[in-house]
Specification:
heterodimer; A: about 110 residues; mainly beta; 4-stranded antiparallel sheet; about 0% helix; B: about 120 residues; 6-stranded mixed sheet; 12 strands; globular
Chain lengths: ~110, ~120
């Protein structure tokens, strides 16, 4: 089975533009997680879904960030409008059982906002 | 609140030697899982090993073993017979297994460099 798929792998955009990051979890996984990684703050959980329903979005930094999961095989993370401080690597991860199961990470999207 | 501490920002080891990467944690949850991930320079996060808080035996996966000392709240990763390809960032993480909040917490990572 293919692992977690993310697109694009790299994104360079200008401040103020809308950015959409995409994720396809591993088939059969019920949980999907969005993370952001920066040198300053390390790896932060932004939001996670269970069966396509957002469960905890307390890590979403502000209203400019939104995430959706319209079906079990697709999720998006949108930033509108983007700012330079949003520059980071964004990871998507998925797992079967949340409490003990391993999260499998996608390759990440490296976002640069100029 | 949970906290993961990795006190070694950087570690160096000779090829074929063993190395221990430290991880201590703090939590009030009675049940939790501990994880280690490897992040090579290419950027992906690779799962290495998992330990449940109620597991009696230390977890092992090939050359990786987790030295779990519950009383000391430590979950150190031991890599035996280091290889050049082990050079990477290593992250310790914890996730509660009860209480309804399953938010994982990651440490800041340890950079491991394996010398030939």
């Amino acid at each position: 089975d293919a692992g977690v798929i993310q697109s694009p792998r790299h994104e360079v955009t200008e401040m103020g533009q809308e950015v959409t990051l995409r994720c396809k979890p591993i088939s059969g996984h019920d949980y999907l997680f969005w993370y952001r990684q920066t040198m300053m703050r390390g790896l932060e959980l932004l939001i996670y879904f269970n069966n396509n329903v957002p469960i905890d979005d307390s890590g979403m930094p502000e209203d400019r960030f939104s995430a959706k999961m319209p079906n079990a095989s697709f999720s998006t993370l949108k930033i509108q409008p983007s700012e330079p401080r949003d520059s980071a690597v964004y990871f998507c991860a998925s797992s079967w059982v949340i409490s003990t199961d391993t999260q499998y990470f996608g390759p990440g999207t490296r976002l640069t906002v100029l | 609140a949970q906290k993961i501490t990795q006190t070694q920002p950087g570690m160096f080891v000779q090829e074929k030697e063993a190395v221990t990467l430290d991880c201590t944690y703090d939590t009030s949850d009675p049940s939790y899982g501990l994880f280690w991930y490897k992040q090579p320079s290419s950027g992906e996060m690779i799962f290495l090993i998992y330990q449940g808080s109620y597991d009696q035996q230390n977890a092992t996966e090939g050359r990786y073993s987790l030295n779990f000392q519950k009383a000391r709240k430590s979950a150190n990763l031991v890599i035996s017979a280091s290889q050049l390809g082990d050079s990477a960032m290593y992250f310790c993480a914890m996730r509660p297994a009860s209480g309804g909040s399953y938010i994982p917490t990651f440490g800041r990572g340890t950079s491991l460099i394996v010398h030939p």
